[in-house]
């Protein structure tokens, strides 16, 4: 190979090396891995809101602020039973669902559970051991004096039966809901037994002196 041929050969190698180096230097940085988001079409399990009779309003921000919090509450777990039949009398469901007897201790556990009903994201209960309780909804202290067991039951089952614009989510309804993950379709958020347990617990929260 002559001098010119060797020069051309080395020149081509140098140009290839330069192009490779330029591509390496100018290569776009790798994008950080995207954090997985919630599955599309999932309805989060919402926090409980016990409104005053015939209203869906809470304190501190109104329904829009409360709806935003509902979207932030993550759906965890499932309720295995179907919706129990019930009869509405004025502003109450007088008969316990499926004739079940509620247990106040179990109901207290449901109310305190931050991953299911998540009541304490919006409410406070008279227990100094609980921290980070909400104040968007009314305090649950004394709710057993303000409302009867039947009135509490109706508000838990479906507050829109009292007020179509109520912001409280239905805890024992499956019809007419949208964007429900297919894994949970046809299942209420709380079972009939859980509803009765929560009713039993809230009914014990009386005003002082009662």
UniProtKB/TrEMBL annotation:
Residues 1-26 have a biased composition (Basic residues). Residues 29-41 have a biased composition (Pro residues). Residues 102-206 form the Cytochrome c domain. GO terms for molecular function: electron transfer activity; heme binding; metal ion binding. Keywords: Heme, Iron, Metal-binding. InterPro entries: Cyt_c-like_dom, Cyt_c-like_dom_sf, Thiosulf_SoxX. The keyword Heme applies. Residues 1-58 are annotated as: Disordered. The keyword Transit peptide does not apply. It comes from the Bacteria. This is Sulfur oxidation c-type cytochrome SoxX.
